[in-house]
Amino acid sequence: MASISARRLRKELNEIHAEGCPCGIKLLNADNFETWFFSIEVLGESLYQGEVFKLMFRFDANYPISSPAVQFVVDQNIQAPIHPHVYSNGHICASILGTEWSPVLSVSAICVTLQSMLASSKAKERPVDNDRYVRTAPDNPKKTRFQYDDDTV
User: Fold this and answer.
1) Do β-strands 35-41 and 52-58 pair in parallel, antiparallel, or remain unpaired?
2) DSSP per residue over the chain, as a string?
3) How many domains does the chain have?
4) Nearest-5° Cα angle at 31, 23 to 52
5) 4: how many CB neighbours lie within 10 A of its CB?
6) Is 21 one of the catalytic residues?
7) Domain membership flag for residue 125
8) Which keywords appear in this protein's UniProt record, sorted alphabetically (predicted)?
9) Residue 78 domain-assigned?
10) Domain that residue 25 falls in
11) Is the pTM of this model over 0.85?
């Protein structure tokens, strides 16, 4: 991994260890600078109140210039949140992970943004094209060119 990426991730990890994660967010595993896991709990009164989800971050050598690949973990025991911007395979259609990515964003900031996205949702439903997308989706959500046209959910 490139040294700039490793330096940035080391800095973010040190801050998490020193200051802790934001409320409702827990670091589950960060054994290397390639893949990190977090849990996020949706706080406050919302459709997802008290629900806990697992996020996986994958970093490439160009982080933080390029965004991490972020998705909800889905396996036999865990499902992705049922949300208009979250596909059943865990991929997330969120502009901050694509066209609106900025190197000033941190892993913690992404977690808080996704936590807020869930908390503010008005409907528990999958994206309209969920079935088609999941059938044809690449393993890495960064290889998808999402169209960001709905910021109302």
Assistant:
1) antiparallel
2) --HHHHHHHHHHHHHHHHH-PPTTEEEEE-SSSSEEEEEEE--SSSTTTT-EEEEEEE--TTTTTSPPEEEE--SSS-----BTTB-TTSBB--GGGTTT--TT--HHHHHHHHHHHHHT-S-----TTHHHHHHH--SSGGGS---------
3) 1
4) 35
5) 13
6) no
7) yes
8) Ubl conjugation pathway
9) yes
10) 4-137
11) yes
The torsion angles phi and psi of 58, rounded to 5 degrees, stand at -120, 130
Residue pLDDT, tens place only, 139-149: 888 888 777 65
Domain containing 62 — which CATH number?
3.10.110.10
Residue 53 lies in a domain: yes
Amino acid occupying residue 72: F
As a whole number of angstroms, the distance between CA 51 and CA 4 comes to 35
55: β partners: 38, 72
Residues above pLDDT 70, as percent of the chain? 94
Q: Would you mind telling me the total number of residues written for the chain in this entry?
A: 153
